[in-house]
C-alpha cells in the first residue's frame, strides 16, 4: 500500500480490480479545505485515460511492475513468440497488447511490461523510433522538396507509411511507432 501523496508518473496502482498507470499528477493545496492529488490514470488493458482525485493520506494498492527486454522471434497464428533476453524462455504474447505491432520485425528487442506478483504480461512496447527500409513507393521527381505533400510507401514489415515525395525505394527511414508517422530519412 502507498499513500496518495507518493503517486508519481509511472506509478502503477490497482483500483476497482483494474490496473492503472499514472501519466500525470498535480499536488493541489486549495486556499480552503484539505490538500489533494489530482491524477490522470491510464487503464493498462483498455487504454482509456481517467482523471481521479485522491485525498492526502488515502491508501492505495500499488503494483510492482517489471520491464524486461525480450526479442521477437516469429508469429504463430494470432500470437507473437518472444524470447526473454535473460533466461532465454520463449513466451507467446497476443498481438492485441503489443503497442506498434504493425512495425514489428523478427529480431527486434522490445520491452515487455509484466505484473511482478502474478507474472502476467500487461503490454509490450516497441522502441518509440525504429528504422526500416522502404520496399515500394512511387518514384520521386527532382525538386519535390518544396512542399510538404506526402505519398504512401510500403516498408519492410509490410506496413504503409506516409512519406515526403523525395523518398525513394531502398532508402531507410525512421518511423514513430506510436502513430506510424514518418520522422526522417536515415543517411
Query: C-alpha Rg, in Å?
Result: 21 Å
Specify the biggest β-sheet: 6 strands, antiparallel
DSSP summary: helix tally: 0
First-residue to last-residue Cα separation? 50 Å
Structural class: mainly beta
**What series of H and E elements makes up the topology?**
EEEEEEEEEEEEEEEEE
Q: Going across the major beta sheet, what is the strand order?
A: 1-6-2-3-4-5
Helical amount: under 10%
* Basic shape: flat
Number of strands: 17
User: Unreliable runs, pLDDT <50, ≥5 residues?
Assistant: none
Strand percentage, roughly? Answer: over 45%
Overall pLDDT level: 87
Descriptors:
flat; 6-stranded mixed sheet; 187 residues; 6-stranded antiparallel sheet; mainly beta
Task: Give a brief rundown of this model.
The chain has about 190 residues and is an all-beta fold. It has strands at about 1-5, 10-15, 20-30, 35-45, 50-55, 60, 65-75, 80-85, 90-95, 100, 110-115, 120-125, 130-135, 150-155, 160-165, 170-175, 180-185. The radius of gyration is 21 Å and the shape is flat.
Amino acid at each position: 500500500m502507498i499513500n496518495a501523496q507518493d503517486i508519481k508518473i509511472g506509478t502503477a496502482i490497482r483500483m476497482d480490480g483494474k490496473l492503472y498507470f499514472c501519466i500525470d499528477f498535480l499536488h493541489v493545496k486549495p486556499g480552503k479545505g484539505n490538500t489533494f492529488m489530482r491524477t490522470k490514470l491510464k487503464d493498462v488493458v483498455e487504454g482509456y485515460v481517467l482523471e481521479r482525485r485522491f485525498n492526502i493520506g488515502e491508501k492505495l494498492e500499488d503494483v510492482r511492475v517489471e520491464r524486461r527486454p525480450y526479442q521477437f522471434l516469429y508469429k504463430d497464428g494470432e500470437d507473437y513468440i518472444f524470447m526473454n533476453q535473460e533466461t532465454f524462455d520463449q513466451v507467446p504474447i497476443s498481438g492485441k497488447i503489443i503497442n506498434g505491432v504493425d512495425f514489428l520485425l523478427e529480431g527486434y528487442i522490445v520491452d515487455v511490461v509484466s505484473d511482478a506478483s502474478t507474472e502476467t504480461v500487461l503490454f509490450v512496447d516497441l522502441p518509440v523510433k525504429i528504422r526500416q527500409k522502404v520496399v515500394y513507393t512511387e518514384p520521386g521527381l527532382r525538386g519535390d522538396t518544396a512542399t510538404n505533400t506526402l505519398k504512401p510507401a510500403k516498408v519492410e514489415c509490410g506496413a504503409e507509411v506516409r512519406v515526403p515525395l523525395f523518398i525513394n525505394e531502398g532508402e531507410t527511414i525512421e518511423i514513430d511507432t506510436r502513430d506510424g508517422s514518418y520522422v526522417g530519412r536515415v543517411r
